[in-house]
């Protein structure tokens, strides 16, 4: 079975696709919805449409166009959405539904604390609308899944997979009956990996016209049912990364990222620079731009690992994230080839980094922890092929950045402790 994943940001594309890489699929993440030679032989292709900041209408149109361009016969569609419902996910799903059949909506990701109960998302047991991330970007808006779908013109029904998690056949029969009835979107309550696994089993070989809509949680359960691991793939997953300075770019301002940075500084002894937003807003026009660029170059040329973060000030606006991320990538672009590995936190930051480095495709190799993917540029002609780790901003344990750093240094915690 071949899988096409369509995501609205780069870190999401990678954290969804990594489950398939771990199961032995040759898995490629691409920045452009255009088939190229790099995609030949891939079992799973994840496309970043970069629609998070577009209008709902623009996002729906670009998503549908990506599906039309990248879909092939015998391939299943997985629409990756953010597990905390950020972006234009409902409009994108509504645009795909007319092309791909019933939308099976299950954004739960229990391994990262996301569950769906009563058609609503909970994050570590807290209702989504009460979380700091939601209040920061969506204050006053409903976090109810059905309400968002309805606003996009897509009526829905709801099914509790937890009640049928021990009987995938009965779950499959319910889903197929609803599809035959003409249901356009089915919201599936799932609070555990057990329920997600049952949903994957119930739908994987179904003949019904449908597509999956979810986060990395359901994706990894689907992948686990289609393992293709070989000795060669095991060897790739244990890849040795080229060595050299590790550059960590953090565009996310979430509390999760703050804790991850703190552990990396404390355990890794990594040098940290926090770039004032004012410098990034003005870019090359700012009087301190060149000084910052030179400071980054001095650190990397000297062989030091560098944690580079976007600061925060009173003028901060969540809508400027893409602009600040692009400026951060431009700041390091002249020095990118000095790195042996790059870690990017935040989808906009990760995409900006790859665009600046002229990397259009990544082959995913392994998973550092749930949702934290490591890969390499997929271009045999490249002279500089660093290891690349991507991670969503508000994702992962406090240990995530430190573990990613160790991975790119070809070390374990035991190695680090013995230094």
UniProtKB/TrEMBL annotation:
Protein's UniProt keywords contain Transferase: yes
Residue ranges occupied by any Four-carbon acid sugar kinase nucleotide binding domain in the UniProt entry: 247-401
InterPro entries: 4-carb_acid_sugar_kinase_N (IPR010737), 4-carb_acid_sugar_kinase_N_sf (IPR037051), NBD_C (IPR031475), NBD_C_sf (IPR042213)
Family matches, as SUPFAM superfamilies: YgbK-like (SSF142764)
Record-annotated Four-carbon acid sugar kinase N-terminal domain positions: 3-221
GO terms of molecular function: kinase activity
Keywords, ordered alphabetically: ATP-binding, Carbohydrate metabolism, Kinase, Nucleotide-binding, Transferase
Homology family: Belongs to the four-carbon acid sugar kinase family.
Entry protein name: Four-carbon acid sugar kinase family protein
């Amino acid at each position: 079975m071949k899988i096409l994943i369509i995501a609205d940001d780069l870190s999401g594309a990678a954290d969804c696709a990594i489950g398939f890489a771990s199961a032995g699929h040759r898995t490629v993440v691409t920045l452009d919805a255009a088939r190229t030679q790099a995609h030949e032989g891939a079992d799973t292709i994840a496309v970043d449409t970069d629609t998070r900041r577009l209008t709902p209408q623009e996002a729906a149109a670009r998503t549908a166009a990506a599906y039309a361009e990248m879909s092939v016969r015998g391939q299943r569609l997985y629409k990756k959405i953010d597990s905390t419902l950020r972006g234009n996910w409902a409009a994108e799903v509504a645009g795909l539904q007319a092309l791909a059949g019933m939308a099976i909506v299950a954004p739960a990701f229990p391994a990262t604390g996301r569950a769906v109960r009563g058609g609503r998302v909970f994050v570590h047991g807290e209702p989504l609308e009460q979380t700091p991330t939601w209040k920061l970007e969506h204050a006053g808006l409903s976090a109810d899944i059905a309400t968002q779908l309805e606003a996009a013109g897509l009526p829905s029904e709801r099914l509790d997979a937890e009640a049928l998690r021990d009987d995938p056949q009965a779950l499959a029969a319910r889903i197929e009956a609803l599809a035959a009835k003409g249901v356009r979107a089915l919201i599936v309550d799932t609070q555990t990996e057990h329920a997600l696994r049952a949903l994957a089993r119930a739908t994987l070989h179904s003949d019904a016209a449908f597509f999956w809509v979810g986060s990395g949680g359901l994706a990894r359960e689907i992948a686990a049912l289609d393992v293709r691991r070989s000795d060669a793939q095991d060897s790739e997953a244990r890849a040795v990364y080229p060595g050299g300075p590790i550059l960590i770019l953090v565009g996310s301002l979430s509390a999760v990222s703050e804790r991850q940075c703190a552990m990396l500084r404390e355990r890794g002894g990594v040098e940290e620079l926090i770039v004032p937003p004012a410098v990034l807003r003005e870019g090359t026009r700012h009087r301190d731009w060149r000084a910052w660029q030179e400071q980054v170059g001095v650190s990397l040329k000297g062989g030091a690992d560098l944690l580079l973060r976007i600061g925060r000030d009173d003028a901060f606006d969540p809508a400027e994230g893409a602009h600040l991320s692009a400026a951060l990538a431009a700041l390091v672009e002249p020095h990118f080839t000095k790195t042996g590995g790059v870690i990017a936190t935040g989808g906009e930051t990760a995409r900006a980094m790859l665009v600046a480095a002229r990397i259009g495709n990544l082959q995913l190799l392994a998973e550092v922890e749930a949702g934290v993917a490591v890969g390499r540029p997929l271009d045999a002609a490249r002279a500089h092929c660093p290891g690349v780790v991507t991670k969503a901003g508000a994702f992962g344990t406090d240990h995530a950045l430190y573990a990613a750093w160790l991975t790119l240094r070809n070390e374990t915690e035991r190695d680090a402790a013995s230094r």
